[in-house]
From TrEMBL:
Record InterPro entries: Bact_Chemotaxis_MeTrfase, CheR_C, CheR_MeTrfase, CheR_N, CheR_N_sf, SAM-dependent_MTases_sf
Protein name: protein-glutamate O-methyltransferase
Entry's EC annotation: 2.1.1.80
Swiss-Prot/TrEMBL keywords: Methyltransferase, S-adenosyl-L-methionine, Transferase
Organism (species): Duganella guangzhouensis
Keyword Manganese tagged: no
Protein's GO biological process: methylation
């Protein structure tokens, strides 16, 4: 196998292949990261070069999901960016309830990764339900990576992923998690109103839904402006007229020509 980095032609072909299958705009600067991620797979398949692996991805559709899993970044944790969750708990939920009593709150975790974001939301919904009988919710969680969605479905967490919730909300850990072989597993009650599905954000969500709250966090950063615009356009038909969209801390969509109105950092409303 090639030692010490990709040959330039292989790197260009790899970047093109990442873009073809995920839309993600990688640059040559990611070469070391990509090599670290691809190496074990190339070795496991007993291939002689990275180029041979790229050829396999092109020719063998069954390899594409593995390739997507390898090139996507799935970092996440429970209650990531606390001010977002403060907003959801203290402002969004009470306001939504006062305006939509009797309806079901529909939430989309649009790049759900291993599920920490969607289960953080489920915890806030379960807590809200205790003080607001009649409240109901549904969380639709999607990601391009089937492998990461399998982890979300399993719902077992350990390490950095649960450190914050363990220190800030030991009561919630006791209530919503059970010790498991690999750390902590979310209780079934948190999974009750959750559906998980594979979805590429660059394509339309089918069927389109009328979500009240959309988490599109820490995924736009992987795309160039043109692709970001496409992602936001594809999400638009799934947003209710009053919907709120939440993006990541280092993401802003204000500069893009879209129908989303800035409310405050990370929070956008529909026009
Ligand atoms: C860093 S994680 C974000 C997790 C969570 N939203 C958060 O903020 O903690 C980014 C996720 O985006 C997913 N992703 C990357 N490209 C995608 C695409 N084209 N469509 C859908 N999901 C994608 C990755 O698989 C990864 O799980």
């Amino acid at each position: 196998m090639d030692a010490g980095g990709f040959p330039p032609a292989t790197l260009s072909a790899l970047i093109a292949l990442v873009r073809k299958h995920t839309g993600i705009a990688m640059t040559e600067r990611k070469s070391v990261l990509l090599e670290r991620r691809l190496r074990p797979r190339v070795q496991a398949l007993n291939l002689s070069s990275y180029q041979a692996y790229l050829d396999k991805v092109e020719q063998d559709r069954a390899e594409v999901p593995h390739f997507i899993d390898l090139v996507t970044t799935n970092d996440t944790l429970f209650f990531r960016t606390p001010q977002v969750w403060d907003y959801v708990e203290k402002e969004f939920l009470p306001k939504w309830w006062s305006e939509h009593q009797g309806q079901k709150l529909k939430i989309w975790s649009a790049a759900a990764s291993s599920g920490e974001e969607l289960y953080s939301m489920a915890i806030l919904c379960e807590e809200f339900l205790e003080s607001h009988p009649g409240f109901s919710y549904q969380i639709h969680a999607t990601d391009i990576s089937r492998q990461i969605l399998a982890l979300a479905r399993d719902g077992q967490y350990t390490g950095r992923s649960v450190e914050r919730i363990q220190s800030t909300h030991p009561d919630w850990v006791k209530k919503y998690f059970r010790p498991s072989a690999n750390g902590l597993r979310v209780v079934d009650a948190l999974k009750r109103n959750v559906e998980l599905a594979q979805h590429n954000l660059l394509t339309p969500l089918k069927p389109a839904r009328q979500f009240d709250l959309v988490f599109l966090r820490n995924v736009l950063i992987y795309f160039d402006q043109e692709q970001q615009q496409i992602i936001l356009q594809q999400a638009r038909p799934s947003m209710a007229p009053h919907a709120i969209m939440i993006v990541g801390e280092s993401e802003s969509i204000s500069g893009l020509n879209t129908a989303y109105q800035f409310d405050r950092p990370m929070i956008y409303r529909m026009e």
